[in-house]
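Run ABC transporter ATP-binding protein through structure prediction, thanks.
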Amino acid sequence: MIRLNNITLTFPDGESRVTAVDQVSLTVHPGTVTAITGPSGSGKSSLLAVAATLIRPDSGQVMINNTDVSALSAREATELRRTDIGIVFQQSNLVPALTAREQLMVMNELGAPHSRRRRAQTAEHAAALLHAVGLSEHAEKRPHQLSGGQRQRVNIARALMNGPSVLLVDEPTSALDQERGASIIELILRLTAELETSTLLVTHDLVHLPRLHGTVHLVDGRITKPLAVG
Ligand SMILES: Nc1ncnc2c1ncn2[C@@H]1O[C@H](COP(=O)(O)OP(=O)(O)OP(=O)(O)O)[C@@H](O)[C@H]1O
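Sure, done. The structure for ABC transporter ATP-binding protein is below.
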C-alpha cells in the first residue's frame, strides 16, 4: 500500500518558490489503480516523483507498506525503492543494445554477483513476465525492432521484475493510438490485480478513467473535486 499524507513540494523560481504539490493526501490499496489527472503543469509528475521517493517533499509523509520513508536512512530508502517500487517513466529508457529479455535480466544484475541458480530463477521470472505482457515471441528483439506499444509492455514488465508492491506509471498511453492505449490500460489493470500492486498512474487520457478504481484531479498542485466520469 502507498499512502501520501499532506504532501507539499515547492521548487525555486527566481526570487520566490513555485508550489508544485499543495497539501495532497491519497491512499492506494493493493490490487487497485488510481489515476492522477490534471492540466499541464498541475503537479502530476512532481507528485509521482515524490511517491517514487525520488524527490523529498517540503512537508508531509510518504508511507510505503506502513513505513515512513522520511524516517529511513539514505541507504534504506534506496533499498526500499529497489525492492518495493516499480517505476515506468514517461520517456522510455530501454537500453538500445539489449533485447527485451535482457532489459529484464539486467534489473537483477545491478548489485552483487549472483549464483548460477539465482540467474536461472531470474531468467525464469523474466520469461514469465514477458509472457504476462504478451511478448514471449518478441523476447529476443531489441527496442528498435518493437512497436511503441510493445516497448511500453517491456517497460512495464521490467518495472515488475523485483516484485514491487507499488507500481508508478507516468503517461503510459501518451505515445499510443486509442486502441493500443486501451490495451496498455487493460494490461496494467490485470497485472495490478494479479500481482496485488498499489498502482498510481498519471494520465491525461480521460477516456480510461472509468476503468480505474479512483481518480485524483490536480489543479495548481491541489486536489480538486473529482471529475464526473462514466
Ligand atoms: N525541477 C523543477 N524546477 C522548478 N520547477 C519545476 C520543476 N519541476 C516542475 N516544476 C514546476 O512545478 C509545477 C508542476 O510541474 P509538473 O511537471 O509536476 O506538472 P505536470 O502536471 O506533470 O505537467 P505535464 O502534464 O505538462 O507533464 C510546474 O509549475 C512546473 O513548472
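The pocket of adenosine-5'-triphosphate is lined by residues 11, 18, 20, 38, 40-46 (CB under 6 Å).
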